[in-house]
Amino acid sequence: xxxxxxxxxxxxxxxxxxxxxxxxxxxxxxxxxxxxxxxxxxxxxxxxxxxxxxxxxxxxxxxxxxxxxxxxxxxxxxxxxxxxxxxxxxxxxxxxxxxxxxxxxxxxxxxxxxxxxxxxxxxxxxxxxxxxxxxxxxxxxxxxxxxxxxxxxxxxxxxxxxxxxxxxxxxxxxxxxxxxxxxxxxxxxxxxxxxxxxxxxxxxxxxxxxxxxxxxxxxxxxxxxxxxxxxxxxxxxxxxxxxxxxxxxxxxxxxxxxxxxxxxxxxxxxxxxxxxxxxxxxxxxxxxxxxxxxxxxxxxxxxxxxxxxxxxxxxxxxxxxxxxxxxxxxxxxxxxxxxxxxxxxxxxxxxxxxxxxxxxxxxxxxxxxxxxxxxxxxxxxxxxxxxxxxxxxxxxxxxxxxxxxxxxxxxxxxxxxxxxxxxxxxxxxxxxxxxxxxxxxxxxxxxxxxxxxxxxxxxxxxxxxxxxxxxxxxxxxxxxxxxxxxxxxxxxxxxxx
Length: 497
Prior knowledge:
The chain crosses the membrane at residues 21-38, 44-62, 83-101, 113-134, 146-167, 173-192, 284-305, 320-341, 353-372, 384-406, 413-431, 443-468. This is Oligosaccharide flippase family protein. It is globular, with a radius of gyration of 23 Å. Helices cover 82% and strands 0% of the residues. The chain has one domain. It contains 24 helices and no strands. By secondary structure, the protein is mostly helical.
């Protein structure tokens, strides 16, 4: 049973990864074109809009998908009730966006926001009308249809957004692109799954009992992750907000494209074994061991190469983003810990502690940004540096939660977190030494630095895994993964030859 679940989770992760890579490849190409057609100020308006819309959606989100996935039996009554409750809440959400569009625009001193928010009020409704039957694919860990849908929609929206940018040359191209994306996702959801939802209120009470704390956790978690951009929208010009948001997006690419795709399959898998404490701990630790083997070198590498990445990837008009990109990459260090804890606690219906952690972090961000905002000469880099400094507090709170809420060994969690830093620091020194002694064009320097970083990190990391495999069950798991990967590559090479 455990082996079968591992296989299904792995397949689910791979399909999620394929979807993410395909969508991100299209998204990166789109973004690389758009950053040369539009200004940082345009991206600032679009970012503030998407964050405000997402905040309203989050406030009205009660976790219908997770409620259906967690249920022992997936009946039509369950699906219809979940879909109907979500639709009712999203209707109120759209009305709130219309009502608060002018006050929000005035509060942020961004009058351009009001008409944008009025158009985007349809986004919550489009999302709520989506076919609830898609959740059945997630219950079955069958992500291929979802991958196909996401990629198809991206391929349709990509040329539309680019054509709009060439025509309009302002933020409206980005906004209309978002609405078009939601529209085609809605239409496609009814093509790929035969289920047809109907209005029902039969299980609203049961879902509310499941969701009331998760709703609060979702709201506080979203505010924690986005409050910095909202505050910057009030404290700084929209150009700085755009610089911060684009830097944030590219700084977090390794996590969002390599690690985050596992989240859906991780939740579906953990919900099936949450009753077994030891197995749950094993699954979480194994996830963290793989995640940090990828996240730590990525964060350190982006920090070391921030100037080269911005100049080569984004272009000259984004040069001020380089130090912001570098410092924000360090926020990735808390993400695997946070996402694994959230997944576990949601599956165990224990989310009150997550709410407390999020409230503490939001308070620290608001107090710190407000203090910095009172100083007239505070720069965007100073705001970003303060935001990243709080990651130490956040990680400490997460460690406490792993120990006292999940009952996991603190030594076990610390080991999978800390050990990748040793080869990553060696990699950083190698990249720094290389950049000090080569004088090619920046694209060549970037390629060489990435190659040297990989050549240094990989064998040192393998050595660390091999050295501690007998002392750590999680690194023994990593060692077995590496052996299977080596065997698979050998077979492929032999077949090719």
